[in-house]
């Protein structure tokens, strides 16, 4: 294996703080010469491709205990930023997070990659699942601890804002708190879908998620819709959500969903797929999932929260 070298032909220096405050102090002192890292799966790919220069200093977060573990309190999940994607896949309190995590990379990658790295990249495949769960990001910086909604942070990032703080954790709703707690006769539903050019070991074309509560009369409320994947920025599709809110699932509504996704999600074009194709793929997997929700749970034979991935051929 070739050793990745920083400018000057030397491997980067490695720092291993034990606390969040110590990690932040190192970053302040080292400035732009240093970056935070843990699993390093995305960073290494970028360094080897030459798209991002290798810094002179690396600040490893692996030994910072505060950034580890998954805790549940009052219907909320708080996952440390350094929780591995494999742990996110195997946890039992958020079906959507588990569904998204199991589609990211091979098992060997998931055992290294972290939830914080997937989020901080701004293009991680877990983001749509987190967006529909109203995720909140917790940060540490010069002002101490701060929190901001994931959707708000992504909007600011899309507007050109840069992030200088350290991500410490991701907070999201547990399954029993999807949207709002269902009343008698209602059911909470949700799904995550991902489309790739082939089954594994390639970047996604599109990833999408939807949650809602289905009333006894079949109409939807508390609708959340998000799309992302590949190198495209993830986004909550609020206009599309408004189109679905309070309406019953029928062919007309499914077409509104498809149109809304294609108009609202600013997908990214690359050598493998156009932005238009990515939008179509996301629209179609969301439409398919929504159509399935119209069937009673017993008839559908599915869990309330499900996930899966398919190839581009399955995207329609």
UniProtKB/TrEMBL annotation:
It comes from the Bacteria. One of its GO terms (molecular function) is oxidoreductase activity. Keywords: FAD, Flavoprotein, Oxidoreductase. Gene3D superfamilies: 3.30.465.10, CO dehydrogenase flavoprotein, C-terminal domain. InterPro entries: CO_DH_flav_C, CO_DH_flav_C_dom_sf, Diverse_Substr_Oxidored, FAD-bd_PCMH, FAD-bd_PCMH-like_sf, FAD-bd_PCMH_sub2, Mopterin_DH_FAD-bd. Residues 7-177 form the FAD-binding PCMH-type domain. The keyword Lipid biosynthesis does not apply. Transmembrane segments: none annotated. This is Molybdopterin dehydrogenase. It comes from Paenibacillus mucilaginosus K02.
């Amino acid at each position: 294996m070739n050793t990745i070298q920083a400018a000057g032909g030397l491997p980067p220096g490695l720092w291993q703080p034990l606390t969040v405050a110590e990690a932040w102090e190192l970053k302040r002192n080292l400035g732009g010469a240093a970056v935070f890292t843990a699993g390093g799966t995305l960073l290494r790919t970028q360094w080897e491709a030459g798209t991002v220069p290798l810094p002179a200093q690396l600040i490893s977060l692996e030994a910072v205990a505060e950034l580890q573990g998954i805790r549940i309190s009052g219907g909320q999940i708080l996952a440390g930023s350094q929780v591995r994607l494999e742990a996110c896949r195997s946890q039992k309190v958020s079906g959507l997070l588990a569904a998204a995590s199991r589609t990211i990379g091979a098992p060997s990658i998931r055992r290294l990659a972290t939830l914080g790295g997937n989020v901080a990249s701004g293009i991680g495949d877990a983001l749509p699942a987190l967006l529909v769960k109203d995720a909140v990001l917790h940060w540490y910086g010069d002002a101490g601890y701060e929190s901001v909604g994931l959707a708000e942070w992504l909007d600011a990032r899309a507007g050109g804002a840069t992030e200088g703080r350290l991500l410490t954790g991701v907070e999201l709703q547990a399954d029993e708190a999807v949207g709002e707690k269902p009343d008698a006769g209602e059911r909470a539903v949700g799904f995550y879908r991902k489309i790739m050019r082939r089954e594994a070991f390639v970047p996604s074309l599109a990833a999408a998620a939807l949650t809602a509560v289905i009333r006894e009369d079949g109409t939807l409320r508390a609708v959340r819709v998000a799309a992302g994947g590949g190198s495209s920025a993830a986004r909550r599709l609020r206009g599309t959500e408004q189109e679905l809110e309070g309406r019953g699932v029928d062919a007309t509504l499914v077409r509104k969903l498809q149109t809304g996704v294609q108009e609202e999600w600013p997908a990214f074009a690359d050598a493998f797929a156009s932005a238009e194709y990515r939008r179509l793929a996301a629209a179609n997997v969301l439409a398919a999932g929504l159509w399935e929700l119209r069937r009673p749970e017993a008839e559908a034979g599915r869990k309330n929260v499900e996930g899966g991935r398919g190839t581009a051929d399955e995207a329609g």
